[in-house]
Amino acid sequence: MAIAEDLDDSKDKKGRRAEPIDKRTAKNGQTSYTFQVDVGTKPDGTRDRQRFTYRTQTEARREYRRITSEVAAGTFIRPLDLTLDEACDEWLAGRRLRRQVTRNNYVQHLLPARRYMGGRKLSQLTKADGDALVTWMLTQGRVDQRRAINPDSLSSRVAAFVALHTDGVTTGAIQAEFPGQEIHTPLSALVRTGRVTRTGRAVYKATELATVERGVKPVTVRSTLTALSMMIQSYVDQGRLPRNVIALVERPADEIPEDDDAVEAAKSWTVAEVQRFREAAAGHRLHACWLLSTYGCGGRRCWDCVGRAWRRRSRSGAAGSRSAPRRRRTCPSPGAAVAISRHPPNWPKHCAA
To answer: Alpha-carbon distance 287 to 345, whole Å?
Structure first.
């Protein structure tokens, strides 16, 4: 009798589940499966317990086993709760750049990605999102400067006031609306950009800007993908993202014209054209500099060769570089240019020093 009662009591007791996955039903009838896992510790020493929710029980079981295994092995990556805009700001703030122009380039290159998907979670980005970004930039990624306006500027406020008068408004009425401010320059700029039109003497009327969707060049797309990939890779290196999906996006190539192989379409000089140029520059006081430009200057730019002070040239004929220290190198100059530089014809005093 006692054994039977114990068996009945054991049936009433709730057994321990192997996988603590709960089933939840929302008010709209949608079913989901959720569980909680300790993924580590917080900075204050308390346990970091996170909840995960999935649509099906099979998916929840699979993810529960994966997450618990990665937590036990120490390889679990916590979901990054940052949008693309927030991640870009954080990445730019952490960059230690010497030159402001470099930072400005990063900001400009990231602008298309921030406009297209700035509100997306960084951890939810996929390769398909990167491909869609490339397509959008190539077809309609160019910003119409007439629409890239500051709504708080005087020109925008004048344009908004003119738009309120469908039959047009006089300059006097505009000046009365903005007393003490010079409105003629903003009005001229608005007429020049096509945002307002002059219908009569000192009478202005707002115009409708035609929406023209244009894309950018492939080189602009490649610059954006490079900067975006650098930003995402920094979070991968920190262990905050599992992989860099933007690195998998194929970069668009430049369009090759049909007459690319034609001699007339060549961007560089032919050997005959270089020879004619050398003969024409033979009597010039910077003859040696022009020779260096045709030789390629050992990888230097032509204007670096032409503008280099000759006092930086050593007796061996090696020309030093005035570029950044990490790119500084010494390359042997061509023999003809060295010979001319040692005996420069009619060389100015400040260059021969």
So the answer is: 9
H-state helical runs in the chain: 2-12, 57-73, 84-94, 100-117, 127-140, 154-163, 171-177, 184-193, 218-237, 271-280, 287-295, 302-306, 335-342, 349-352
Neighbour tally for 145: CB within 10 Å: 8
Burial of residue 228, with CB atoms counted within 10 A of its CB: 0-12 exposed, 13-18 middle, 19 or more buried: buried
Amino acid occupying residue 42: K
Q: What is the dihedral of CA 209, 215, 221, 227, to 10 degrees?
A: 10
What span, in angstroms and rounded, lies between the C-alpha atoms of 208 and 196? 8
Global pTM reads: 0.53
Compute the distance between CA of residue 58 and CA of residue 300 in angstroms, rounded to an integer.
62
* Burial class of residue 331 (count of CB atoms within 10 Å of its CB; 0-12, 13-18, 19+): middle
Query: 165 to each of 79, 151, 162, how far by Cα in Å?
Result: 52, 18, 6
Q: What is the pLDDT along the chain (353 residues), one digit of tens a residue?
A: 454 555 455 444 555 567 888 999 988 989 999 998 888 888 788 888 888 888 898 999 998 898 888 888 877 777 778 899 999 999 999 888 888 889 999 999 999 999 999 888 988 899 999 999 999 999 988 876 555 566 778 888 888 888 888 888 999 999 999 988 888 888 888 888 788 888 888 899 888 765 566 889 999 999 999 999 999 999 888 878 888 999 999 999 987 766 655 555 556 777 788 888 888 888 888 887 787 777 654 445 544 554 454 444 444 444 444 444 444 444 444 555 556 555 555 544 544 44
Tokens 């003119």 belong to 162
Sign of CA dihedral 106, 108, 112, 118: positive
